[in-house]
Design goal:
By secondary structure, the protein is of the alpha+beta class. The protein has three domains: 228 residues, 3-Layer(aba) Sandwich (Glutaredoxin), CATH 3.40.30; 86 residues, PDZ domain (Pdz3 Domain), CATH 2.30.42.10; 105 residues, Pdz3 Domain (Roll). Helix content is 29%, strand content 20%. The strands form four sheets. A five-stranded mixed beta sheet has the order 1-3-2-4-5, sandwiched between helices. Strands 12-13-14-15-16 form a five-stranded antiparallel beta sheet. A four-stranded antiparallel beta sheet has the order 9-8-10-11. Strand 8 and strand 9 form a beta hairpin. The radius of gyration is 23 Å and the shape is globular. The N terminus is likely disordered.
Length: 439
């Protein structure tokens, strides 16, 4: 049976290919491998949907960016049909499509910072659910396991078999229509990319990378001089925002609950299995993130969990600004935010020992300049005089921010391109002041 894996931007390279290959060769060799496979359909979603309809089977859709090293081992296990998931993969029709180019942005809405993500489809194109989550740059092993993927697939198959029963509620798994139909129509990408990858030359550069979609969505606001809305500034909130950590070896079983968190106040307990959120059946943590992504700034979400053989309904009360506690500094799209807000700086929390040595009180801005861009628009901070190792202690006269994510949000939501921002930094025992112009 075939499984439809939808690989955005590029395809993960399986073990047969040497890791030293350049980006173009990786994409081309992946194409050769998958086109020759009897288990995958390559770069042809319409064909996959037709085959799924003929066989009355669901479709598994994976988004994968080859140049990104994160999640490549997980992707290889899927491509090579690891015994833990082989039989389940056979219950789907499967395709890999190696491009974000011409992606239907009204249909395929997912976390574009992911380097590996899955969407499950009924053969008529209805979205059954999603799989794939990350909470950091290189900690995918903490967020995704084949065992959890297998359980998610099992749920997808069961949901597809009862499709008529859930047809109405599954409509909520598709988001609002995108104002831009396909990525190559974004103003900043138009004329630079076509609908297809060029396999003859500059192959990787002809791909629209997944992170470029999120960056382009933000630029629509930025170029109009409008603040970035919270759902776009803090996209796809992880379960940590409501105080939960899931066991990655399961689909949605909770490993821990943070005391006094939103989830704790709702009554969620370790060992609970999340079944539904806002009435939507959850196939994985990514499904819960989808519901959170679509949720207003405040409100009450109905959560259904399985505990001790019974289902329980719990109310998740989301206070105003709830998603602003999310950490976005790990996201690939944050590099473009750093260009616009910081002039190319990467900021890390100052170690406690160094904070104590400098007598900087807790709750006061103190972020270590970990990196300073050296080229083009990412070199503005360097040109202003900022150096790696400096400690940022004020931004635009503010000292009340404690994380890079908070500062990025302030710059994107309270300031406009062309605004001048004063930076206060500590260098050794001296305080220095520089000014950057926001881009």
């Amino acid at each position: 049976m075939r499984c439809v894996l939808f690989a955005l931007v590029g395809l993960a390279l399986v073990g047969q290919f040497a890791p030293a290959q350049d980006r173009d060769t990786k994409v081309r060799n992946d194409k050769k491998l998958l086109e020759a496979s009897e288990h995958w359909i390559y770069n042809d979603l319409p064909r996959a949907l037709k085959e799924a309809q003929r066989k009355n089977k669901p479709v598994l859709v994976v988004f994968r960016c080859i140049p990104c090293e994160a999640c490549h081992e997980f992707d290889e296990q899927v491509v090579e049909r690891d015994p833990k998931v082989r039989d389940l993969l056979d219950q789907f029709v499967c395709v890999r499509i190696p491009q974000g180019n011409h992606l239907d942005l009204s249909q395929f809405q997912f976390d574009y910072d992911m380097s590996f993500a899955v969407m499950y489809l009924h053969h008529d194109g209805t979205i059954l659910g999603r799989f794939g989550t990350r909470t950091g740059v290189s900690n995918e092993a903490e967020d995704m396991h084949l065992e959890g993927f297998a359980e998610s697939m099992t749920r997808a198959v069961a949901l597809d078999k009862n499709f008529d029963q859930y047809r109405a509620i599954l409509a909520a798994k598709k988001g609002p229509p995108s104002s831009v139909p396909v990525p190559e129509e974004f103003p900043n990408l138009k004329g630079k990319y076509s609908a297809d990858i060029n396999y003859e030359a500059n192959t990787a550069k002809s791909c629209i990378h997944c992170h470029q979609i999120r960056e382009s969505q933000r630029l629509l606001y930025r170029t109009a001089g409008e603040p970035i809305p919270d759902p776009l500034m803090f996209p796809w909130p992880g379960l940590s925002v409501i105080g939960l950590k899931a066991d990655p070896k399961t689909a949605t079983t909770i490993a821990s609950v943070e005391p006094n968190s939103i989830a704790a106040k709702a009554g969620v307990q370790p060992g609970d299995t999340l079944l539904k959120m806002n009435g939507q059946p959850l196939l994985s943590v990514a499904d819960a993130q989808w519901v959170l992504q679509q949720t207003d700034d405040s409100g009450i979400l109905a959560l259904e969990v399985h505990r001790d053989g019974q289902s329980k309904s719990l109310p998740l009360v989301l206070p105003s600004g709830w998603r602003r506690t999310a950490n976005i500094d790990w996201r690939a799209t944050s590099w473009d935010l750093r260009r616009m807000v910081f002039g190319g700086m990467k900021l890390d929390p100052l170690p406690d020992a160094q904070r104590a040595e400098l007598k900087i009180p807790a709750g006061q801005l103190a972020l270590l300049v970990k990196h300073v861009g050296e080229y083009g628009e990412h070199a503005r901070a360097k040109q202003a005089g900022v150096q790696k190792g400096d400690i940022l202690v004020s931004y635009d006269g503010r000292t009340d921010f404690t994380t890079e994510s908070q500062l990025l949000a302030y710059g994107m939501q309270q300031k406009k391109p062309g605004d001048k921002v004063e930076l206060g930094v500590l260098r050794g025992n001296q305080r220095k002041t520089m000014t950057i112009t926001l881009q």
